[in-house]
Amino acid sequence: MKMHKQKKRILVVDDETKIVEVIKSYLEKAEYFVYSAYDGITVMKLFDKINPDLMILDLMLPDINGENLCRILREKSKIPIIMLTAKTSEGDIINGLDIGADDYVTKPFSPRQLVARVKALIRRTEGDKLRKEGLISFNNGKLIIDTLKYEVKKSGTIVNLTPIEYNILKTMASYPEKNFTREELISIVLEKSFDGYDRAIDSHIKNLRQKLEDNPKNSLYILTVRGIGYRFIGIKDK
């Protein structure tokens, strides 16, 4: 069954209805869930309820100004914030970034460029989160190795690996594009005193491929290097 990534939630805050509608239209076309607020009080009521993944925040609001709202939210959340404003001076931009904004877009703006910045910021934030949580992600999240939980997920589903299979995968994935001989994998992954037939590694690799690959004959993760051994070829996510 094909797994679908959960849509990200974007909170758009601006007191100009037309601007909110334009931003919302473009973000929804980019497949985001979009929530709207036209003043700071509404933001404070909505924020914890919807737990947005990113916020686009106008500085000129009718009640709480954007700078103060940003400071308040920064005390309890690391949510990415893009400030949207008519203030264009270098001092205003620096001040906005100093109080916790992640990006700064001035009016008038290109909706397409704003969406591109949203995508880039979410992508960067997700990458940071993966690194902090001890996750190594490959092929656009299709394969994730959790080095804290000793767990592997393929397309969001946990893959049941034996301890040896997990150690082989983690070792190879930690050094992508390195050719590992069977003897190296035995010395790294198995007991140092292991004196079994080195082709035992082949059986573990075969089992790994059956569990990880959609088509074991057309590998996306583990490549056989003739005359040497094996190499991990998954593309690491940034």
UniProtKB/TrEMBL annotation:
Q: Indicate yes or no for the key word Transcription.
A: yes
Q: Which InterPro entries match?
A: CheY-like_superfamily, OmpR/PhoB-type_DNA-bd, Sig_transdc_resp-reg_C-effctor, Sig_transdc_resp-reg_receiver, WalR-like, WH-like_DNA-bd_sf
Asked whether the keyword Transcription regulation is assigned, the reply is yes
Q: In which residue ranges does the UniProt entry place its DNA-binding region annotation?
A: 133-234
GO BP annotations of the record are: regulation of DNA-templated transcription
User: Which residue range or ranges hold the OmpR/PhoB-type domain?
Assistant: 133-234
Please give one Gene Ontology molecular function term for this protein: transcription cis-regulatory region binding
Which residue ranges does the record assign to the Response regulatory domain? Answer: 9-122
Keywords attached to this Swiss-Prot or TrEMBL record, sorted alphabetically, are:
DNA-binding, Phosphoprotein, Transcription, Transcription regulation, Two-component regulatory system
**Source domain of life:** Bacteria
Modification 4-aspartylphosphate, positions? 58
Report what the protein is called: Stage 0 sporulation protein A homolog
What the protein does comes down to: May play the central regulatory role in sporulation. It may be an element of the effector pathway responsible for the activation of sporulation genes in response to nutritional stress. Spo0A may act in concert with spo0H (a sigma factor) to control the expression of some genes that are critical to the sporulation process.
* Annotated GO CC locations: cytosol; protein-DNA complex
Taxonomic source organism: Clostridium tyrobutyricum DIVETGP
Matching entries from CDD domains are given as:
trans_reg_C
